[in-house]
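Quick one, tokens below. Sequence please?
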């Protein structure tokens, strides 16, 4: 969805070119509807770009035209029921043609929710990272204790084997000495 498509669809809906330099009620209301729709449904587009599409002059005051149109839209929409129903019809027409679902919340609210969710995601990610660090730390502790215990066990086994070896060696020496003594006699 871009501004050119919206302008072309708006021209089709109203039956005239919005960029015609006319100040009749019909043209002014149509431009206000266009400003409001673009401001509400296209995120990140500047007011100058919105105004440039429907302006027939090469002035630099496109953004001020849009601001004034949005102000008038807000005033008339809150008072005039016919104005409000005409805008709702216009909006429904464009949404159907553009195949877009209508969202009740304005884009800035949705964007703020997105940022909040993204922040929560960051917090969640940090929490997961911290939990992962704790798990790794506890696992390292467990492994180092296991290693230490196995080392102690190995040392114990090694020392018991050493004791047995030295005991057998000493017994062997005694036997050899006794054998030498017997052979001398």
């Amino acid at each position: 969805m871009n501004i050119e498509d919206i302008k072309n669809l708006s021209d089709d809906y109203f039956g005239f070119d919005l960029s015609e330099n006319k100040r009749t009620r019909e043209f002014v209301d149509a431009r206000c509807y266009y400003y409001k729709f673009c401001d509400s449904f296209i995120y990140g587009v500047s007011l100058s770009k919105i105004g440039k599409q429907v302006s027939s002059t090469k002035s630099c005051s496109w953004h001020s035209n849009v601001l004034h149109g949005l102000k008038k839209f807000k005033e008339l929409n809150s008072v005039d029921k016919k104005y409000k129903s005409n805008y709702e019809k216009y909006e429904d027409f464009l949404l159907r043609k553009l195949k877009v679902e209508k969202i009740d919340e304005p884009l800035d609210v949705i964007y703020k929710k997105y940022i909040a969710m993204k922040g929560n995601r960051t917090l969640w990610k940090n929490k997961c990272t911290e939990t992962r660090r704790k798990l790794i730390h506890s696992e390292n502790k467990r492994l180092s204790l296991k290693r230490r215990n196995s080392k102690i066990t190995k040392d114990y086994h090694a020392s018991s084997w050493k004791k047995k070896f030295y005991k057998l060696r000493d017994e062997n020496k005694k036997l050899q000495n006794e054998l030498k003594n017997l052979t001398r006699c």
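Residues 52 and 62 are 6 Å apart (CA to CA). The two ends are 117 Å apart (CA to CA).
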